[in-house]
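Practice problem: predict the structure.
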Amino acid sequence: MNIKRGQIYLVALDPVVGKEISKTRPVVIVSNNKNNEFSATVTILPVTSKNLQNIYPFEVLLPKGTGKLPKVSKVKTDQIRTLDKSRIVKLIGTIGKKEMSKIEKATKIHLALP
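Answer:
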């Protein structure tokens, strides 16, 4: 599997605990490509099409069609996770540099990085 940073995959997130995002859903790969090539795990940010009325500074709105997403959605940088690659179901698409830049900025806000 040739997983790349910025790709959107459908992954199985269950089982989860508490308020973690669950179900099989789209995620954005945010781990670097060397990790993605050699590690058994990838770092992801979940994508949801729920609660779009509030977009917080640590979330990124993605218009319908971005990375072949079927609905307007948002990336939740406050739910960053590292997953085993066996949870990956299929590739959906790839987001552009503009969206990836927004995701990086929102992740820095969430993690209080300069």
